[in-house]
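Bumping my old thread because nobody answered last time. Still need a sequence for this structure:
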């Protein structure tokens, strides 16, 4: 399973992409608002830092298929590695099938059911993005949704990639990998938590102590 970074903040992407574990970046209107930047402003800079796909979403105010298609084409023109994020609505599906037929990579976002995921594949989406944390928030199992979609994609030999979003913890990431997701897009904080373990830090301290004691003995 690949890891994407779920952020529009260059100051978060820059140090973390040096780890060599990030295969792409996802943004959305909320993340761009938090970064105080527009998609147009950040795309080239993100592309300079990360080699993989960059996912940029149509404006939240774009709810009809014509506007989504127009914005999708403009977003796709920003960079060869960009994929256009479109919410999974009826209008969004119509826009997805149109853009996909034009050869534009589309990611359907805000997916909360297996039925929506099935429609997304039929519309030609390259990425299907269920939101795990937001289902957990309302007392439903986000992971169960991921497991079901992964199984459905396996049985159907689906060409779409299962990209898990709204990831809130390292455990979410591991569980999504075990469920068979293709990609998890993680906030910078979650990636940092994944790196850390107190026993790793304690182990280094003990090695340092033993090393300096041994060199003091010589
Ligand atoms: O990729 C979608 C993600 O940014 C949403 O995360 O934590 O707001 O549900 P969250």
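Sorry it took so long. Here it is:
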């Amino acid at each position: 399973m690949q890891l994407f970074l779920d952020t529009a903040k260059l100051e978060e992407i820059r140090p973390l992409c040096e780890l060599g574990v990030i295969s792409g970046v996802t943004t959305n209107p909320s993340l761009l608002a938090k970064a105080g930047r527009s998609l147009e402003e950040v795309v080239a800079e993100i592309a300079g830092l990360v080699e993989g796909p960059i996912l940029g979403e149509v404006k939240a105010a774009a709810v009809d298929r014509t506007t989504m298609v127009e914005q999708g084409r403009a977003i796709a023109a920003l960079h060869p590695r960009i994929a256009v994020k479109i919410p999974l609505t009826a209008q969004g599906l119509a826009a997805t099938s149109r853009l996909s037929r034009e050869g534009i990579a589309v990611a359907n976002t805000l997916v909360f059911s297996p039925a929506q995921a099935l429609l997304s594949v039929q519309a030609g989406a390259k990425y299907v993005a269920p939101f795990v944390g937001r289902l957990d928030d309302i007392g439903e199992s986000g992971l169960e949704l991921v497991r079901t979609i992964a199984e459905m994609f396996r049985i159907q030999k689906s060409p779409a990639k299962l990209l898990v979003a709204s990831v809130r913890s390292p455990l979410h990431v591991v569980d999504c990998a075990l469920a068979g997701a293709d990609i998890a897009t993680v906030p910078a904080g979650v990636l940092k938590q994944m790196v850390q373990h107190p026993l790793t830090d304690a182990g280094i301290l003990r090695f340092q102590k033993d090393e300096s004691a041994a060199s003091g003995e010589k």
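Residues 6, 26, 28, 31, 131, 133-134, 165-166, 168, 185 surround SN-glycerol-3-phosphate (CB under 6 Å). Let me know if any region looks off to you.
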